[in-house]
Specification:
Strand content: 15-25%
Helix content: 25-40%
Structural class: alpha+beta
Number of domains: 1
CATH topology: Jelly Rolls
Number of helices: 5
Radius of gyration: 17 Å
CATH superfamily: Jelly Rolls
Shape: globular
Order of helices and strands: HHHHHEEEEEEEEE
Mean pLDDT: 84
Distance between the termini: 34 Å
CATH class: Mainly Beta
CATH architecture: Sandwich
Number of strands: 9
Length: 206
């Protein structure tokens, strides 16, 4: 099996796992899709596609689902990723400062076409969530979604279609966007190659 084919299968398996956990957590809370839609602000159709493994969901949208289900975002990923995330929070650094070396193993989360690499250690008084995001081509577009906080994205490589308040903007390497996250927004890679983005969001997701 080729590398790209194996990566594609891994993406599908991770996406399906996130959707399956979403369905299980929703049912444990006794919520219908309509109820989860009301609480999270995401459409019933989109949530249904995520649960069935048809669509992937970004971390900020998943954060809204997690809050609606009284869960942490890390609980939607596999056990190894949760363990890495939990270990990262054990070694407490000063509340005002963290230092992350290149050689330090970074925690990564995969949701559908997107791989998120955590760029900093946890700091109890720090509110920014810096991420390196690799967005694979293809997949279904997410619903535009608004949430509390701010969001910044800088394209390192490739192209990104970024929708803000119903208007699409094509970003190339070196372009960036910075917005209040309460404005509905979504990003999508409609090219045939991986796009790499440095993203900073608030509040922290993990």
């Amino acid at each position: 099996m080729g590398t790209s084919e194996q990566q594609g299968r891994d993406y599908r398996e991770r996406r399906d796992a996130v959707g399956a956990r979403m369905r299980r957590f929703r049912k444990e809370r006794g919520l219908t899709l309509r109820g989860l839609s009301t609480r999270s602000g995401l459409s019933i159709g989109f949530l249904s596609q995520v649960e069935r493994g048809i669509s992937s969901i970004g971390l900020t949208a998943l954060n809204g689902v997690a809050a609606a289900l009284d869960r942490s975002v890390a609980e939607f990923f596999d056990d190894d990723q949760q363990a890495d995330g939990e270990r990262a929070t054990v070694a407490r650094l000063p509340s005002h400062f963290t230092l992350t070396r290149a050689a330090t193993a970074a925690t990564e989360y995969v949701s559908g076409q997107q791989t998120y690499r955590m760029l900093s250690a946890r700091g109890p008084s720090l509110v920014l969530e810096p991420l390196l995001v690799h967005i694979a081509p293809g997949g279904r577009r997410e619903d535009a979604y608004g949430h509390a906080g701010e969001e910044f994205a800088f394209v390192l490589d490739g192209e990104l279609l970024y929708e803000v308040d119903g208007v699409e903007h094509r970003l190339h390497a070196g372009d960036s966007v910075h917005l209040r996250s309460t404005v509905p927004h979504a990003m999508y890679n409609d090219t045939d190659r991986v796009t790499t983005v440095v993203s900073v969001v608030t509040p922290r997701l993990f």
